[in-house]
Amino acid sequence: MRLKTIRTPLAAAAALLAVLAGAPAHAQETEPVSGDVVAAPGLELRGRFAEERYDVWANVLGLKPHGGEETLVVYCIDIHTPLDTESPYAEGDWEESEVANLEEVRWVLFSGYPSVGAADLIEAAGAEVNPDWSDEEAAEVAYAGTQAAVWHFTDGWDLLEDNPVKGGNNGEDEAVLAVYEHLTEEPGRVPDPSEFTVDLEGEESASFKDERFGPYTIRSNAGPVELSAEGGRLETESGDEAQSLKDGEQFWIVLDEGTNEITVEGTAAYDLPVGRVFMATDDEALTGDPANPMTVGDSQKLILAQPREGEIPAEWRFALDAPESSEAPKPQLPATGSSLSIAFAAGLALMVGGMTVIVLGKRRKAAADL
Questions:
Q1: Mean pLDDT over residues 301-330, rounded?
Q2: What are the structural domain ranges in the chain?
Q3: pTM over 0.85
């Protein structure tokens, strides 16, 4: 922590503000996840590299983490290498995997199956779900179209427009191609977790009026911020309780009687972007150095497709004094907050620490003392 003194000129006097701020919080390091690969039959796709034909099975792949019950949906990001079903897989770095186009692949996984349900994805792509398909068959189609799009960006592979599913029938050809084109034609961008922030603005312009301090403005690119307070309450402009605010929305502080301190807590929850890479290893490496469990060999690389929930916690603590006398109009000491930005470190860590900002506003002297 460091202590920084700021002098803020007011209309008739200078107010002294002491701002005590903690160092920025970073994501906590997490142990790499390891698990066993499972595979179910899928659809055989017809495609090519440039002018060379290359057909491949889009088997439905899953990863069952060690010590967990849920099987996670994963995709192949290494079309030329066979899947190693005998070895465990462990989480590694994207750079270590040496696979290209992470931004585009993230977009495909975020917008494809299972982030979007099978039927919803097929219909969003402009195709039809055959009413005779079972849920498993619809999932195979959505998975195959998503896998084809992943290979397009990681390996430069293109799905054939003419009969893309070998032996496909009952609408499989049309649906797989539609999903593939839907996910590759105009890929968007999914923010990296390190770019998510929660911030508070208003320290330069907030004032005391009608028994409350404000306004303060929420800044969040991670979704709505759930708010709570201890030592007072938070209000919207109309006087309603401020519980959940979006980016750009404002709140005012009303202190409890007999106190001049308040703690405001905020939490932004979001779906953690996908993109965690897994590579084959061995049992000996998993029990050895956990920082580098990878082994070199011909084994297919996989990427996690399912988003997970994440949160960004924020906390602001204020010491605020209302003017001691209202007999004559005087310039008011702004109710001071301090902007807070809590960002994730690069990668997909699921937990962050909080950052506390304490703002102390010294009591103004009475008019006779100024």
A1: 74
A2: 2-23+193-272+308-369, 34-191+274-304
A3: no
